[in-house]
Amino acid sequence: MKNKNENINKIADWLDKVSFRKQFFGGLSETDVWKKINELDQMYQAALDAERIRYDTMIEHYRKTGENPQDGEMAHD
User: Fold this and answer.
1) Distance CA 44, CA 71 (A)
2) Nearest-5° Cα angle at 27, 24 to 31
3) Distances in Å between the alpha carbon of 46 and those of 19, 25, 26?
4) What is the pLDDT of residues 23-73, one digit of tens each?
5) DSSP string spanning 33-74?
6) From CA 21, how far away is CA 29, in angstroms rounded?
7) Reduced to 3 states, what is the DSSP secondary structure of residue 22?
8) Between 51 and 77, residue with greater pLDDT
9) Residue 77: pLDDT band with limits 50, 70, 90
10) Neighbouring C-beta atoms of residue 64, cutoff 10 Å
């Protein structure tokens, strides 16, 4: 099932396709592993930033309008 959040979908697709460069001695290239970890961190940071903006916008809307979300209402619905 696909998540509605595009950033999360990109991360999931990246994780499905990621592969690591192998070394003759020592298994995986440590440099390559750290590079991939950095890429993943940047994708998660982008997703987190997008969620913060979305939630801040929702909070501001509810403060201005005085509306309350309905019980059980999902933030992304």
Assistant:
1) 29
2) 95
3) 22, 35, 33
4) 888 788 888 889 999 999 999 999 999 999 999 999 999 888 887 766 545
5) HHHHHHHHHHHHHHHHHHHHHHHHHHHHHHHHH---PPTT--
6) 6
7) strand
8) 51
9) very low
10) 8
Q: pLDDT digits over 13-23, tens only?
A: 988 988 888 88
* Residue 45 structure tokens: 């940071």
Secondary structure element (H or E) that encloses residue 13, with its range: helix 6-17
Residue pair 74/3 in contact (Cβ under 8 Å)? The answer is no
Other C-beta atoms within 10 Å of 53: how many? 10
Counting every residue written for the chain, the total comes to: 77
Spatial separation of the C-alpha atoms in residues 54 and 52, rounded to whole Å: 5
Distance CA 40, CA 35 (A): 9
